[in-house]
# Entry
Amino acid sequence: MEEIIPAGLHTVEVAVLDKSGNGELYLRDLELEKNDWFYVGIADVTASQSFVNGPAKIVTNDTAGHYDNNLSWMGVWLFIPTENLATTGN
# Structure
């Protein structure tokens, strides 16, 4: 059994800070019911441009065009719904 936050009333603290540690602190009250779900989403986008001289395309056997001196990009999207496991089976 995994427990992220148990069911009930909780106060959470969120800090938004810069590199020096300065920023704002926020307190929020959360009430989690037995049937609450958590949703996690992640997006990763990578853009690159190659400035290759020589046989990089031949050596890597690249067929996606990464070494054509053009702009290329790729992205990954991930979305995971998760039931609140703190109360599963109760």
User: Anything to note?
Assistant: The first strand starts at residue 8 and ends at 17. The radius of gyration is 23 Å. Confidence is low (pLDDT under 50) at residues 86-90. The first helix runs from residue 56 to 60.
